[in-house]
Amino acid sequence: MVLGTFLEFYKIKQVMNEDNEYKKYFRDEGLDKGEISYDIPAEQKLPFQEKLPSGYDPMGEIYLEGRAYSNISEGNSKWWIIISSWIIFGLPNLYVFFWSLSELIRGVKIIFTVGFTARMFFIVALVSFVLFCSSSFLALLGKGTVRKLYKKRKKNRIK
Q1: How many CA atoms does the CB half-sphere of 141 hold within 13 Å?
Q2: CA-CA distance, 76 to 145, in Å (whole number)?
Q3: Is the dihedral of CA 14, 19, 23, 25 positive or negative?
Q4: C-beta of residue 131 within 8 angstroms of C-beta of residue 97
Q5: Do the Cβ atoms of 44 and 38 come closer than 8 Å?
Q6: Is the CB of residue 73 less than 8 Å from the CB of residue 143?
Q7: What's the start-to-end Cα distance of the chain, in Å?
Q8: Whole-number Å distance between alpha carbons of 2 and 43
Q9: CB of 111 within 8 A of CB of 124?
Q10: 144 and 82 in contact (C-beta within 8 Å)?
């Protein structure tokens, strides 16, 4: 089929050469001279795009969680993400924070009234750790919310 179309083109070319109409409509591309050139476009480099690792392997999951936390703490997230983060993560952490704070105060009171025991020290240390974990996540959410509010206020001041 390709050979047939080539032959038809060749016949048309011969007829047009005889009539000199070929040069009216088509430029001489140097096909008879054997000078065929190919234009290869240069490889276009895209702007830097960070490849996101897969969340299915452990290191990729750690990286994606860290990236999400850093986006929230820098205030780069959208409002609906910040509000839903407060609802989904902030409210339970507030509950855990106040519960562990009350238990810590109660444990310290018991230590000062009854006396120091290894069991009470272990309980106070464990509750302190829970208090630290919940307060660090609340600090992260609070930092992101304050930064988002500050960015919004800064944009309004510039305008």
Answers
A1: 21
A2: 10
A3: negative
A4: yes
A5: no
A6: yes
A7: 67
A8: 31
A9: yes
A10: yes
Answer whether 141's CB lies under 8 Å from 89's CB: yes
Query: Which structure tokens are listed for 26?
Result: 């088509």
Residue among 14, 20, 141 nearest 84 (CA): 141
How many CB atoms within 10 Å of residue 127?
A: 20
Per-residue pLDDT tens digits for 30-50: 555 556 666 777 777 777 776
Helices (H), 20-90: 22-25, 58-74, 79-85
Query: Per residue in 129-138, pLDDT tens?
Result: 988 988 988 9
pTM: 0.52
Alpha-carbon gap, residue 141 to 136, rounded angstroms? 9
